[in-house]
Structures are given as structure tokens and as C-alpha cells.
Design brief:
Strand content: 5-15%
Strand order of the largest sheet: 1-2-4-3
Shape: globular
Largest sheet: 4 strands, antiparallel
Oligomer: single chain
Order of helices and strands: HHEHHHEHEHHE
Number of strands: 4
Number of helices: 8
Structural class: alpha+beta
Amino acid sequence: MSGMQSQAELVEKSLSAMDAIYGRRSVRDYAPERIDHATIHALLAAAVQAPTAMHEEPWAFAVVQDKQMLQSLSDTAKELLASGTDAIHSVKARLALDRFTQTEFNVFYNAGTLIVICGKPIGPFVAADCWLAAENLMLAATSKGLGSCVIGLAVPALNTPEWKLKLNIPQEINVFAPIIVGIPNSEAPSVPRKPPQILCWER
């Protein structure tokens, strides 16, 4: 078994909310096993428990586990990245362009499951609701011993008419959060965070 644990060995950990928050890592190295349908449904059920403005629940989901489709989507994402470097959001990201566009690089880090969180255009807080659902999903994955990572590089590709058609995503719906989920191949390192920057504290 190449991963840290097999699918059969995955058991939900007894984690407090704070344990899950501090234990979550962005995993970029996955075992080849795909996670099963029951686990995916559990993650989606956790996602939709997120706060939602006016109880609109604007989210919808696409799940991709087909390896050829994931590879093709990765290729499209890299092509769009290479043809439009202005879309890269930081100097650090621009410096990584060469690595991201290498032929052998897979934007999904060879994970076997991609969960795409989409939002219906029904209010001003759709994006916020979808990202809240994304955090719920990733914390739920942590509680099950799974790794996850948001793949922002895939957003432009997933929002093209061609890929929406392939994934049965209506054209008026926007993709916000593509998240890979799977069995970590190795333990992701802890990355320190800066202390909160408090701009104001009126008392």
C-alpha cells in the first residue's frame, strides 16, 4: 500500500473542532486509491451544513473520479495558465509558472477524487457561501484521516463552456472551489501562520 493508510483503514477520528482546524493541511501527494461513494456523500453532507445567507443554499457539486478526465482537465488548466499569465495572483505564483506548466505536472497532484463546489447565481453572497461549504468539506475530510487541497489553478478551466458541458454544469452556474480529496501518500508539513492582524478593537 503506497499511502499512509488504506481505504479500509480509514476511520473517523474523534477530533474537536479546534483539532480539525489546526490539523488540516493542504496535501499535495496522494496514494492512487479513490475514496468510496459513502465517504464522498458524507463529505458533501458536511459541506451543506455551512452557514448560508438568507438560507439560499446556492451550492451544487460535481464529482470527478475518472482518471482520464482528470488528466485532460489538468492539461486544459495548464494551457490556460500558460496563455494568460496575468491571471496569476502573485509574484510568487508567477515564479512557479515554469513548474506548473511542465508536461509531467498534474495540477491535481494525481489525487483520484475532485469535488467541485459551484454556486447558483441567486444572491450577492453565493461565493461566500460556497467557500464556507468548502471549509466544512475539508475539515470533515481531516476528521476522516483524508487529505484535501483547493486547486485554484483549475477554476478558469472549469468555468469554460466546454468543461461545464462535460461535467453537466449549467452555463449560468459558476465554479468557485475545486477541491481534491484522497489518502495522503505522506504527512504534509505544518506551515506556521502569522498572528492575526487586528486593525481595530473598540472597547
